[in-house]
Amino acid sequence: MSENQNHLLGITVLPEYFQYEGVNAVLDNCQNLAGATAITTSPYVMEPTTSEQGQREPPIDAGAGAVRLLDRNLWGKHELFVKTAPSFCANVSLYGNTCYSPPPATELTNSDKNVVSSVLDKIKHRGMDAYFQIQAAIPPGYRVQFSGVADKDVPRLPNGQMVENRVALNASLASEDIFQYQLALMIDLFQQYPSLDGIRIDWPEYPPYKLDSVFLDFNSAVATHESLDGQYDFDSIRQSINEVYTWLHGNVNSAELVKMSSLEGVCEVLASYGWLEALRSWLQMKKALVTSYIRRLREGIDAAGFASRKLVPHAFPPPFNHLSGLDYGEVGRYSDHIPVKMYTMHWAMIARFYLDQLTAKSPGIPHEQWIDVVFNLLEISDDPSPTNLDEVRYPGPDDPHLNTKFAQSRKFNTAQEAAKDTPIAALIHGYGPVDDFSDRFEHAFHAANRSGWINRYCYLSNEKLRKIGELKNR
User: Fold this and answer.
1) Which domains does the chain have, with CATH numbers?
2) How large is the average pLDDT for residues 43-59?
3) Whether the predicted pLDDT of 18 surpasses 80
4) Is residue 302 predicted with pLDDT exceeding 70?
């Protein structure tokens, strides 16, 4: 980590706010009010449009986040539809090893492309570190909602089907075309934006937002991927994991659920069916795919002459990372630091997604049994598990998030122990009421040894920014 990052306070400010509020005004807010030492933005530009032509801002999170609104108005609104364009004209010669084409420049690119380079230069002039955030495996990669992933590269369930209505539209990490595109994009950005200190990659794993997304990846490319070194019986594992999937959807009994409120109990139940070793092998396969992907990106960036630039992969917190495939210790060998997502409103959302699917397929089992299993296994809250599904929901803008102070501390400690010498940073979401955000920020920032990123400026009113400045040095 750089000297600034010994006590890192970074804020993610996406380009639309520099366009709307002005570059110096935004940086003044981040630096003077909050005391930011680093800023992350992204390589695109934006303009408002109609619902037919654009995407909702803020993102709707597969429907669950429809309650979410912007704290800071954007083009006069707290909810709107937008369209984007890359902020750069891609060097197409870099993309010869992939079937994916770089994002084409548009009229919006040509009119506003200087905004992002000006932002980066001013960040550096003010003595802060400058980063981009891009998607790890979703061409074109510069903004989360847009995906051009070909069907051949979509991760598959063990029965060979695609997952419907995913939150994260990631491609299979076994796809060579996806990897080569991602490497070309990162080299392109480092070449075009010399002020960049590093790139943060979002979702460099298998994001487990939906229950079906947990059961990835059985794309045929996985079977022969170099990271697995031929040591796994892919077809046998796929068959066993498909049996586990089928069992969860209507074949679990109440006695088994009582045992499954602990990891030891889950292992006991799975072992009784003969699935435990296959499950362990499957999770090891995921880890191998994720680690290989990040390792190869680091090696490719270094070989292109950018060894001094930082690679910063985001990570789901423990124990979600066991489902996503990200091993902190292995990934840490190729990372400057690892921001761990403390998006507590998402924890409730994930739990509800899982519970809706599980309870719909198990009509004879009381909902509170499933709730207890999901909340305990994922360590979602410090409070006792709810007894009613209606209590498990995405919080509204004025609602406090789940009570998670002790859960967050455990997750940080587990992640840092696994990451060894690679620093763990808190990745804190700004969404929510001021007092609730302030409590979450103060706890997470200090639990992570005063190292954190805040996502993102659009949820940070000036009152929240001032609170950050007051709390960061306590």
Assistant:
1) 4-215+284-471 (3.20.20.80)
2) 91
3) yes
4) yes
